[in-house]
Amino acid sequence: MEKYYYGYDEFKKDTQTLVDKCRGYEPDVLLAVARGGLTLAHLMAQALDMRNLYSLNSIHYEGELKLDTFNIFNIPDMSHAKRVLIIDDIVDSGETMEEILKVLGKKFPGVEFKLATLFYKETAVLQPDYSVREANEWIDFFWEVDVI
């Protein structure tokens, strides 16, 4: 499988681009999807000067292996919010995000959810509201591979 190394310098530039695209939405809450969205969401929260940064956990992959199940847990209380920006690193198949949106929509029916990602695949079952790059190969994010 062809792989693309996505380094910090590209990440910093692309995060600024994504922040600029999302500014008009004015979310009440930023919601990171752990683990892939945590680094991005932290930098976006800094850039947007937002303290309402929450996270949830979602497991549908083990490394490069896609699992047959979805596990979505540690969902924070967002019943007070009107607009939530969900942040993740990539929409690959889109199946995980579709499931997350379904779960969140049932739990918080009065909340508007939008999705921001660095990467997306054109073949995904859903597309992010805000994104920067199309992914045409496996992305090796620096926060996944530059570890000791």
List the topology elements.
Elements: E1 3-6, H1 8-22, E2 29-34, H2 38-48, E3 53-62, E4 65-73, E5 83-91, H3 95-107, E6 112-120, E7 133-134, E8 138-141, H4 142-145
Parallel strand pairs: 1-8, 2-3, 2-5, 5-6, 6-7
Antiparallel strand pairs: 3-4
Sum this structure up briefly.
With 148 residues, this protein is α/β, with parallel strands linked by helices. Helix content is 29%, strand content 36%.
Verbal overview:
- The protein is an alpha/beta fold.
- The protein has one domain (3-60, 68-141): Rossmann fold.
- The chain is 29% helix and 36% strand.
- The strands form 2 sheets. It has a 6-stranded mixed sheet, sandwiched between helices.
- Helix 2 (38-48) links the parallel strand 2 (29-34) and strand 3 (53-62).
- Helix 1 (8-22) packs across helix 2 (38-48).
- The protein is globular and about 40 Å long.
- The two termini are 24 Å apart.
- 28% of the residues are buried.
- The mean pLDDT is 93.
The chain-level structural class is: alpha/beta
Q: Percent of residues in helical segments?
A: 25-40%
Rounded mean pLDDT is 93
| CATH top level class name | Alpha Beta
> What is the architecture at the second tier of CATH?
3-Layer(aba) Sandwich
Low-pLDDT windows of residues: none
Largest sheet: 6 strands, mixed
